[in-house]
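step: validate -> pass
step: tokenize input -> pass
step: predict -> running
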Amino acid sequence: MKNKSNNCADYFNANYLHQSVKLLIDSEKDFQIVDGSYLEFKSSQKHDCKIIDQGLEIIEEIDYFDYRKGDIISPFEILIRYQFSGNITAAINYIEVVLMKKESNYVRVGTDFFKKIIVKDRMKIPRQQLKVWKESALRLDLGKEWHVGIPKYDNFVVVPNNKNYKAAIGNSYNLYKPFSHQAIEYDGDESKIKWSMHLMNHIFGEKLKQGLIYMQVLYLHPDRMLPIVALISQKRSTGKTTFLNWLNAIFAENMVFISPQDIGSSFNEIYASANIIAIEESKFDGTQSLEKLKQLSTSKYISENRKHVSAAKLEFYGKIIITSNNERKFVAIDKEEIRYFVLKIDEIKGQANHNIEEDLVKEIPHFLGYLESLPPIDFTKSRMILSPEEIESEALQKVKDESKSWLYVELEERFKELFMQYGAELDVIEFCLGDISDYWFRNNSKVSLKFLRETLDEMGIERADSKQRYMRIQDIERKTKEGNALKYTVTRELLGMNDLSPDEIKTQQDFKEIFGEEEFEMIKLNNEKKSNLPY
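step: predict -> pass
step: emit ->
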């Protein structure tokens, strides 16, 4: 081949001159080749065109072509006119796919056709998307040879691999996209990852070790499960968006940005095959979306729903990252929930680097090499890699506290008040559902026995398996055991008071000093407003 240009027109012009001339003669029976280098009308007996390296040069002006004397008709123009009836898209597809052996912009999966389209994201990163393309549109686009070069697959799969990527897995089309960066071996020079580690330290703080393990998994083990990461802060300019943009620059097409509404949508094509799912400035109000979020974090499979295409069951490897300005109520988290890694992000201090995103992008190959140099990950601690103890944080506990129902909070406060009130005289609190229903919530129709039972279960307060005699709450003063039922038992340990002796919590001042101003004021306010409570 004379020319290996990636431009299909230049490629065809340089390599298919004689084939295009033959195409013209076969299509136009009035032309003939004369003296090996000229074309003429059979009736004119004149040299009308000369074959030159660039194509056909018009020697005699004729009405047959829309060209003037001295114009040159390129092989590419001949191909468009005579083989593809003026369809330039079809001609380009033929050259690229059939002659240049390039990958087709179209693909067939099962019985559906798709076109690969390129859309730039907010970071100006080109992202490939598959858009359903009707067969009738293919015929219009590509002409009579529309089917030539379109690869055929049986179904979709998602096989994430950033080191040894494969576009096709057997006869299935891999929706995971190739990784665009090449790691540079880390040589110990920290200046080469200065801004990367600066951002990691800022985001993860005292959890930096866990943060690096998290990044290792994203890069080296994208097929593994990770907890939901929540970056929260009421303040602005904290670096949350910078962190997401950095991840986007690293993982490109395998990361998506969505809203809480997208989680609740029946069409999930936007994130079904993504490896990282970022949900910005989030607050999940709907129970359905919240439950779907939690379910996604541990799902092994997902049913991908595209418009106008049959649903496809895919393996799901999505890791979810949430950012929110609501530090306490961005999501409801149960007491025993272990799927959230909540990090409170502080404001960036010191002089800001307004070019940090550009600096981070430059460091990506070195940072990847640094991740490769870290010790291997221990996969035995948790199915989410990081154990519950490793992701426990004060920010997580605050969200859990805020997620408690009003009845949970009320019962917790009342139990603590009893322990404070009776001090050393009271080791445990015992009751049955009827006791507290009658004693505390007799006039509140909202507090059903079912609601009480569910709340006590949520609090981790267990019920005895058999009937036992016990001291009812209303009998504590008399110290008599008049109850006989399947009792519940509350201990100081369950309420987080296990490190204290009864004498240490006898007074309000002690309670205030030990448990903090905020909780003390909450109980105090509760006591002052009993008449306004919903019971």
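step: describe -> Residues 356-373 form the longest helix (18 residues).
step: cleanup -> pass
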